[in-house]
Write a structure and sequence with these properties.
alpha+beta; 3 domains; 7-stranded mixed beta sheet; 6-stranded mixed beta sheet
């Protein structure tokens, strides 16, 4: 990104005088924002962060649609101590909506048909006069909603009183709504021995849509799972319980008589996208939870409907053979925890937007969120694919798998770069 002046980009981040921004400062901020948007429109970030499409097949354009998922990183959740300049000057925690607005504006340049969002920040107050007037500094979810509405999208976000919520939006030219459902992962009866203090504040929103070009129904879910930690100890119990609730809600929506009259069945195409807060493989780091949620998501729910339960695969794993090297770009946690799952019997991924493997190419501030967006193109099948094999799970042998060494393992594996081995190889003498 070309330099604007001697003070840019610092002039965008802060003002040393503490005085209100001048017209010159405002013009620089607007110009810098436009440059950022243009960078992402051309597929590059502020320094050099190229993202190219990995194409698996040439689809029928009348049956193709694009899905984007993005964790906006709510301003109230940002830790400015880890990365300076994350919040606009004179803004208290939770007040700065520029980050989510910039992220959405840049995401729109990818021309998605469906957008799944997580960490859409709502106002904490149950009754807020400023929210009623449309001037609340904390209700960023409504600002994002209005931005997408003006851009030609329909949709909704989950309005259940929790501060961080999820939303799903669809291009009105490509889809029309049939039904919208919600799931709140806060049912302690699903997890034995969990106190009310450990209940989830996360959830999912499900939109049953009709694809305009093909006239076929599609179910899209925006999902945000808990961080799998309990008192500093990895614990995936709540995550797995939440995914069971999600599967149950999906099956209820697809088999409900009112929706069934619209042609929905268990063979209706389903896309579940979002921040799942789980790795696809067992990490070498004992502080990181095992991939129980990923395994749960990619297994067949054989107990439902005579063994015809929902089967999910990852779009990135199906197209490029593995998950992205990372989707979280937080300074202290760089892993792949965001996914685009789909039902392979009804959908075929045609392309995914790749993530550059070398993290050294990441600019100092490539994105106003601590997550990168994932984008995938899907093609609707005419009929369910009866030959679709079961979904692959994480390999239990890890780096010791001889089939992976021969390139014949059908399971998912971590990247070949092993942080612990690299540290041992490059550690100082005597360490």
């Amino acid at each position: 990104m070309a330099a604007l002046c001697a003070r840019c980009p610092p002039c965008i981040q802060s003002s040393s005088s503490g005085a209100p921004p001048s017209k010159e400062d405002l013009s620089h901020r607007l110009a810098a924002l436009q440059l950022t948007i243009d960078d992402y429109k051309e597929g590059r970030a502020s320094s050099a962060y190229p993202r190219t499409w990995v194409v698996a097949r040439r689809p029928d354009p009348t049956r193709e649609f694009t899905v984007l998922t993005l964790n906006l990183e709510a301003d109230s959740a940002k830790d400015v101590s880890k990365l300076a300049g994350r919040r606009a000057p004179r803004c208290k925690p939770g007040e700065d909506s520029s980050g989510c607005e910039q992220a959405v504006a840049a995401a729109l340049r990818r021309d998605p048909d469906v957008i799944c969002l997580q960490e859409m920040q709502r106002c904490r107050r149950e009754y807020c006069d400023w929210c009623a007037l449309g001037n609340c500094r904390f209700n960023h979810a409504q600002k994002v909603h209005d931005l997408l509405t003006k851009a030609g999208f329909g949709g909704e976000y989950k309005r259940d009183g929790k501060q961080l919520t999820v939303g799903v939006y669809y291009k009105l030219a490509a889809f029309r709504r049939i039904h919208v459902g919600f799931v709140t992962f806060d049912k302690p009866q699903y997890v034995a021995g969990v106190s009310r203090a450990a209940e989830s504040q996360k959830g999912a929103i499900l939109a049953l849509l009709r694809h305009a070009a093909s006239d076929l129904p599609v179910l899209v879910a925006s999902v945000h799972l808990d961080v799998p930690m309990s008192n500093g100890v990895p614990c995936t119990q709540q995550q797995v319980a939440g995914l069971k609730q999600l599967r149950k809600k999906m099956e209820e929506m697809l088999t409900h008589p009112k929706n069934a009259s619209q042609g929905t069945t268990l063979d209706t195409p389903v896309v579940a996208a979002g921040d799942f807060n789980t790795l696809a493989y067992k990490s070498w780091d004992p502080r990181i939870a095992p991939p129980d949620a990923y395994v749960e998501m990619t297994r067949t729910n054989a107990r439902a409907c005579g063994g015809r339960g929902l089967l999910f695969k990852s779009a990135y794993a199906a197209v490029q053979g593995s998950e992205p090297p990372y989707t979280s770009v937080a300074p202290d946690f760089t892993h792949a925890i965001d996914y685009l799952f789909f039902t392979p019997r009804q959908l075929a991924p045609s392309a995914v937007l790749a993530v550059v493997e070398d993290r050294a190419n990441l600019p100092a501030a490539p994105w106003p969120s601590d997550h990168l967006p994932l984008v995938a193109k899907f093609e609707l099948r005419d009929a369910p694919d009866p030959t679709t094999p079961p979904s692959a799970t994480a390999c239990r042998f890890g780096d010791a798998c001889i089939f992976y060494a021969k390139g014949k393992c059908r399971n998912f594996h971590p990247p070949r770069k092993h942080p612990l081995r690299e540290w041992r190889a490059n550690r100082p003498q005597g360490a």
